[in-house]
Design brief:
Layout lengths: L11 E4 H4 L17 H11 L4 E5 H4 L6 H18 L2 E6 L18 H20 L4 E5 L4 E2 L7 H22 L4 E5 L3 E2 L2 E3 L4 H8 L8 E3 L3 H6 L4 H10 L6 E3 L18 H13 L6 E3 L9 H27 L1 H10 L13 H9 L4 H5 L5 H12 L3
Parallel strand pairs: 1-2, 1-11, 2-3, 3-4, 4-6, 6-9, 10-11
Antiparallel strand pairs: 5-8, 7-8
Helix pairs in contact: 2-4, 2-11, 5-6, 9-10, 10-11, 12-15
This protein binds manganese (II) ion.
Manganese (II) ion (MN) binds next to loops.
Length: about 375
C-alpha cells in the first residue's frame, strides 16, 4: 500500500470546488456541510502529498464580500496553506455562476457584460497571483448559446479573442507571468459551448496576439462527453507544445458531466493517458477536477482524494511495467518497421522521382504480421495484475 503514497514531486492539485463539493446536484440539496476554504485546505493536508490547491475567485471570496470580509478569508486561507505546506497552483475566474453571465461573459451580446467579465477576470488574476498561482485556466462555461438564433458564432469568436488578447496583455503588464490554459467543453449542459474540443482551442490559439503564452487544459470528462478519445486530444496538445495543465477525472461516454474520481469508470483509458503523460515527461500540475459521490461523508471525501492520487501512481507503475515487459517489447519490435530504404525525409525532385520509380511490393507489405490482439491482451493482463 505504501508504495503508492503521493509526494509534492507528483504535482497533484485539487480545486477548492472539488473536495469542497457538498454533493448538490440539479435535483437535490447538499448532502455534506459546506467547508470554508481553510477547512478544505486542511482536508487536503489530511489526504497527504497534495502539492497545490486551485480556486475560482468566488470559491475563495464570495462575489458580494466586502474588503474586510475578503481580508479575513485570505488570512485564514494563508494560515491553512502554511500549516499544511500546500500552495496555490492554478487560478481561474467564475464567469458562469452569477445571473449576469446567463448569456455568456466574453461572448455576451451586451458590451457592458463583456467589460464586466474582463474587469472581474483582472481582479481574479490579481488575487490568484498574490497567493502564488502561475497557471491561469479559462473555462468558458457560458460562452455559447442555448439557441443559435441568439448570437452570431463568428462574431462570438472575435469577442472571445479580443477578451483573451486583453487579459494576456494585462498579465504581461502587471508582471503576473501567467501561462494561460484554455479548457474546452462541448456543452454545459443545455447550451452549445464555443471552442468545444482541444482541436478547436488549438486552432483558436494560433490566432492570438501572444500564442506562446496560451495553451490548453484538457479534461477527461469533457472529451468523453463528446465521445472523443481523450488520450488523442492530450497527445495533440503535447505534440503542439500546448499541454500547460490537465484536469483528471472520469466520465461515462454519452452522459452529461459526471466528474467522477480519476480512473473510476474506465481504468484502461486512464492507463493509456498516464502512460502518454509519463512517456512524454509531462511536468505540469495534475489537477483532479472531480468530486466525491453524493453519498460520501467527510472521511469518504478524504478517501476520494487519496484514491485519485493512488490511481494515478498505480497506473504510472503499470506504465513502467508495460514499458519493461519482455513480451510487450518483443511485440513492439515486430510492429514497428522503421528500417525501410524508402524513408520520406524532406522533399526533393530527386527523392520524389526515386520514390515513384521504386519497386514496392504491396502484397508482401500487407502480409506482414500485426499481432495487436496479443499486444492488447498482454496490456490487459498487466493492468489486471496477471
Ligand atoms: Mn475542469
Amino acid at each position: 500500500m505504501t508504495a503508492f503514497n503521493p509526494s509534492f514531486a507528483d504535482k497533484f492539485t485539487f480545486g477548492l470546488w472539488t473536495v469542497g463539493n457538498p454533493g448538490r446536484d440539479p435535483f437535490g440539496q447538499p448532502t455534506r456541510p459546506l467547508l470554508s476554504p481553510a477547512e478544505i485546505v486542511d482536508l487536503l493536508g489530511e489526504a497527504g502529498g497534495v502539492l497545490g490547491v486551485n480556486f475560482h475567485d468566488n470559491d475563495l471570496i464570495p462575489i458580494d464580500a466586502n474588503p474586510h470580509e475578503a481580508n479575513a478569508i485570505k488570512r485564514e486561507f494563508r494560515a491553512a496553506l502554511e500549516r499544511t505546506g500546500i500552495r496555490v497552483g492554478m487560478g481561474t475566474v467564475n464567469l458562469f455562476g452569477d445571473p449576469v453571465f446567463k448569456d455568456g461573459a466574453y461572448t455576451s451580446n451586451d458590451a457592458d457584460v463583456r467589460a464586466y467579465a474582463v474587469h472581474k477576470t483582472m481582479h481574479a488574476m490579481d488575487l490568484a497571483a498574490e497567493l502564488g498561482a502561475d497557471i491561469w485556466v479559462m473555462w468558458g462555461g457560458r460562452e455559447g448559446c442555448e439557441t443559435d438564433a441568439a448570437k452570431d458564432p463568428v462574431e462570438a469568436l472575435s469577442r472571445y479573442r479580443d477578451a483573451i488578447n486583453y487579459l494576456v496583455n494585462y498579465s504581461i503588464d502587471k508582471g503576473h507571468n501567467y501561462k494561460f490554459a484554455m479548457e474546452p467543453k462541448p456543452n454545459e449542459p443545455r447550451g452549445h459551448i464555443y471552442l468545444p474540443t482541444i482541436g478547436h482551442c488549438l486552432a483558436f490559439i494560433a490566432t492570438l496576439e501572444h500564442p506562446e503564452l496560451v495553451g490548453v487544459n484538457p479534461e477527461v470528462a469533457h472529451e468523453h462527453m463528446a465521445g472523443l478519445n481523450f488520450t488523442h486530444a492530450v497527445a495533440m496538445a503535447l505534440w503542439a507544445g500546448k499541454l500547460f495543465h490537465i484536469d483528471l477525472n472520469d466520465q461515462e461516454f454519452g452522459r452529461y458531466d459526471q466528474d467522477f474520481r480519476f480512473g473510476s469508470v474506465n481504468p484502461k483509458h486512464a492507463f493509456n493517458l498516464v502512460r502518454l503523460l509519463e512517456d512524454h515527461s509531462y511536468s505540469g500540475y495534475k489537477h483532479f477536477d472531480s468530486h466525491a459521490y453524493r453519498t460520501s461523508d467527510r472521511d469518504d471525501v478524504v478517501e476520494f482524494a487519496r484514491g485519485s492520487m493512488r490511481s494515478y501512481l498505480i497506473l504510472k507503475d503499470k506504465a513502467r511495467q508495460w514499458n519493461a515487459d519482455p513480451m510487450i517489447q518483443e511485440l513492439l519490435g515486430v510492429i514497428n518497421r522503421d528500417n525501410s530504404s524508402h524513408q520520406l525525409g524532406s522533399y526533393s525532385t530527386e527523392s520524389a522521382t526515386a520514390l515513384k520509380e521504386a519497386s514496392l511490393d504491396r502484397t508482401e507489405f500487407a502480409s506482414r504480421p500485426l499481432p495487436y490482439e496479443k499486444l492488447d491482451q498482454r496490456t490487459n493482463e498487466i493492468l489486471l495484475g496477471v
